[in-house]
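Appendix B: complex inputs.
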Amino acid sequence: MQADARATVGHAPLSGAAGESIAIICGGGSFPGAVADAVLRSGRRPVMFAVKGWAEPSVVDRYPHHWLSIGQVSEFFRLVRAEGCREVLLIGTIFRPPLSQIRLDWHAIRLLPRLIHLFRGGDDRLLAGLARVAEERGLRIVGVKDVALDIIVSEGVLGRHRPSPRDQADTAHALALLAALGPFDVGQAAIVADHHVLAVEAAEGTDNMLARVAELRGQGRVTTPQRVGVLVKAPKPAQDRRLDLPAIGLQTVSNAARAGLAGVAVAAGNTIIADAAEAVAAADRAGLFIVGVPEGRA
Amino acid sequence: MQADARATVGHAPLSGAAGESIAIICGGGSFPGAVADAVLRSGRRPVMFAVKGWAEPSVVDRYPHHWLSIGQVSEFFRLVRAEGCREVLLIGTIFRPPLSQIRLDWHAIRLLPRLIHLFRGGDDRLLAGLARVAEERGLRIVGVKDVALDIIVSEGVLGRHRPSPRDQADTAHALALLAALGPFDVGQAAIVADHHVLAVEAAEGTDNMLARVAELRGQGRVTTPQRVGVLVKAPKPAQDRRLDLPAIGLQTVSNAARAGLAGVAVAAGNTIIADAAEAVAAADRAGLFIVGVPEGRA
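Resulting structure:
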């Protein structure tokens, strides 16, 4: 368990040895489960550190797990060592907790001046700062690409349907828009239909954004024909890619279909797909494409 | 009525002579009424050209008016001449009609290749193109600033409350974000709270965006304290400012209060305020500031 062997699969360095435990700090949604399954497939042991108020019991309960409140920093470090984890991965939906709900232990109190500073920035800054805190304690922060490469979307079309030239142009427009938003630490997603920007994601998240477009369409306020428009997701240019990759899954595809879109385009090599088989099957049935595109293409 | 006299008030050229009729093409919302009232105060006669499906009868009915469908281009030009209007102003919420609902007359059919081309761009391109069509027919397209300067927000604080240094920093952040979005012909508004971008407006409009932030707060997904955060509105950099100025009013203030914001900052000299007295009184009661800021300040 303490062996230091490193294996390499394709171009991706596999961190940790077979059987070694990896700590997964779990935010909301189904993505923590998808990562844990991929970790299991790679022959390692996931230990879920479920954050109260964020993580979903139904996702976390299937694996070895501990529930923690935000602010229980000492307890987290104690449990991580007890479980024999040297690597930590953060995955799932997070949002800033109201300060009144944070219970701070002595470790957190010592970190407080730094945490307050971090809270004032965007998500990128908050996550990068928390990563530095863990690294100072001798832990290694790893990304999904390091431990679960088989749930990363690669370049090319998944499934039966392909983007049209119009879809490709909409994708390029959205990628350029997301790149322009980079300095502002804002959303990882936008929806463009026939060169018209329908939605830009910020605090609401991708599913809410898709629901909004479906609703605007229902109200007659978005009038592009059905099966026109692309949901595009890409990491922020300045983002620490170990910490916050964009993600899609079955729900993304269902919501994109309800929003009347033609398909979903994501940054190849830097986007997680959960429940890939189900998501692709749903896209095939609904007539949507899913495609991994080079990020630089804008 | 056909006199060609021009008057000047401050730096703003007043177009048209006293008593002359001005054609107001009305989209949705209350802003067409605010403009018509300002036109009346300036001693001219507003004639409302209410677009079916966009304009609200309760707003339009108080003035001389005609209802027209999109596509009734010949009829519009005939009525404008019959009413003695040489100037045309476009105001109110518009959205792209589904092509199936457009009834085209012969004039519109002749313009069809151009209109189809215009429909494929963003709103800016659509509006600029329609303006050129009107100008080719001998009409002059005017903006709100030309005929109703008293509903344009000028620089400085309206009402009792003032932005804090934090609010000013949030405003600068949002203005920089809106400037970066300029090339993409997307929203005129964003919400930033304590340096964190909560929402970016696209097809949904400002009221929907504010409602979303209120809802995310209710769900605990936006956790900045009450009375932190600023709604910022500014015209797109490339926008034809005769055609599509950002606008605020009583509803904007009420929705900003419900979203828990500290206030509303708008581009001075390039933002319409409707029902200014009521909007400022509501802001005073709710503890919100309203401020006109120089656009360049970012």
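Residues 7-147 of chain A form a domain with the Rossmann fold fold (CATH 3.40.50.20).
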